[in-house]
Amino acid sequence: xxxxxxxxxxxxxxxxxxxxxxxxxxxxxxxxxxxxxxxxxxxxxxxxxxxxxxxxxxxxxxxxxxxxxxxxxxxxxxxxxxxxxxxxxxxxxxxxxxxxxxxxxxxxxxxxxxx
Length: 115
Fold this sequence. Notes:
There is one protein chain. Helices cover 0% and strands 47% of the residues. The protein has no helices and ten strands. It has a six-stranded mixed sheet with strand order 2-10-9-4-5-6, with no helix packed on it. A four-stranded antiparallel sheet has the order 1-3-8-7, with no helix packed on it. A hairpin with a 6-residue loop joins strand 4 and strand 5.
């Protein structure tokens, strides 16, 4: 079965940084475009970043553009998201997924940005 395990979230002050990790299993990670999503309380799921199978063409939503880096390790089947200059509005549960709408995702990792 397709599975994802996200980690690396936490409580950080505004302006801080976090590095999120997603470990994938149950499918051919090396052939899959991968995404990061987030969902804040009371808000819709938001696709925030994506990366092609080769790791050469990233996509960022405007909300994270210039403040984040998506990367992957195909040998370890891991997807990463580095978040910089974090803002309170970045507070959300962050998930990884391989489908465009994030229908199948893990339990997520909570990012809380607060002073």
